[in-house]
Amino acid sequence: MGRTHKKVSMAPTGEPYTPATAAADVEKALKMLEGRWKLLILFQLFDGGVRRFSELERAMPAVTQKMLAQQLRQLQKDGIVARKVYPEIPPKVEYSLTPWGQSLCPALDALLKWAAS
After folding, report:
1. How many whole angstroms separate alpha carbon 10 and alpha carbon 25?
2. Is residue 80 a part of any domain in this protein?
3. What's the whole-model pTM score?
């Protein structure tokens, strides 16, 4: 079998992706979205709006508060979700997608179309 040196595309570093580096980077991206509730959280936020914790909780009645908080923290740590805390009592916390998180929308839409075909 012959080898191919075709480029998949360019990595953020400016170097061409190889099949191995492309697979590793896609796997890394998919791991950020791993979790039972992360995709549902993202779809709740994709309209560009801001949601309070309680709104997200009501929209996903099967999720526990603890799990919702954990998933939101992980999405925030990965730079996908922004969290804004207002210094008032009771605490008011709002979540929205970062611009980078919002850029996931077309990719997930394409994945939905691919899965439907």
Report:
1. 12
2. yes
3. 0.80
